[in-house]
Each structure stands twice: as structure tokens, then as C-alpha cells.
Design a protein that fits this description.
about 140 residues; 4 helices; Aminopeptidase; globular; alpha+beta; 5-stranded mixed sheet
Length: about 140
């Protein structure tokens, strides 16, 4: 069966969470609760995508922007569908959506030890930024 790429809807979140939890290298947190995903999708309409084989979700990615730069989060493809272009198709859809919004640069956060993901991202022309450090601050405590 052909893989169908669709816009990510809030109704897809339970299946996406199941997929993300099954994939190595995806870091989930309280920010990934369904209500937060719904808010992200509402703030970034038509930017995130899912991949389906019939009624089965086989890939998902969150995509958004801040008006200057795009950001991808949680790209995941079911193990049985890897190496078939599903991840690349999802990324291509995100890139097209970002370009349509006038965004010309996009970032992805990848765990340094996630070699498979780093190889994938380099294969779709993402370049590691060794001159930058990611710093975070909690606003809840």
C-alpha cells in the first residue's frame, strides 16, 4: 500500500505518542502531553505532518516557526518503514510549509549519541553546529 502524508491533527496525537515512545532517541516530556501538542499544532497550522499506511500511523513530525527560523521536533518513522523514504517525505513537507511562510532556515534538536538520527539528518543536508551550545531554563520552578 502507498504511504499517504497528511497534515498532523490533534486527533493524531495518541497514535503519534505511541510511535514516539517506541522509537529510540525521541525524548518526551510534560511538554508533549496531548493538550500541549494541540496548542503547538494550533499555533503552527498546517506545518506538522503524519505518514499513514492505511489506518496505521507509520511516521510523524512536529514543525513550527517563530517568524525567523523553523524548528522540527520528534521526527519518527516506524522501524518497519525505515529506509523507504518516509522520513524524507515528512521532512520535505515541513520544508515546503516553512518556505511558504517565508522561513529560510530550519533547526532540529538531536541527541549526540543518536547516531542513526545524525546520519539521517546529514543525509538530508543538515549540518551539525559545533559552535553553538543549547542552554535551557525551567520556567516552572
Amino acid at each position: 500500500m502507498a504511504i499517504e502524508i497528511r497534515a498532523f491533527s490533534a486527533a493524531d496525537t495518541p497514535q503519534a505518542l505511541t510511535l514516539w515512545r517506541s522509537c529510540e532517541g525521541i525524548g518526551l516530556s510534560s511538554a508533549d502531553e496531548p493538550q500541549h501538542i494541540a496548542g503547538y499544532l494550533a499555533r503552527n497550522p498546517g506545518m506538522s505532518f503524519t505518514a499513514w499506511d492505511g489506518d496505521t500511523l507509520v511516521g510523524a513530525v512536529l514543525c513550527g516557526h517563530d517568524g525567523r527560523r523553523g524548528y522540527l521536533h520528534h521526527l519518527a518513522v516506524d522501524r518497519a518503514y525505515r529506509g523507504q523514504g518516509v522520513g524524507r517525505a515528512l521532512v520535505d513537507c515541513c520544508h515546503a510549509a516553512l518556505r511558504a511562510e517565508g522561513i529560510d532556515k530550519v533547526h532540529i534538536f538531536v541527541y549526540r549519541e543518536n547516531e542513526a538520527a545524525l546520519t539521517f539528518w546529514k543525509g538530508v543536508h543538515y549540518i551539525p553546529r559545533d559552535t553553538l551550545a543549547l542552554l535551557s531554563a525551567s520556567l516552572t520552578g
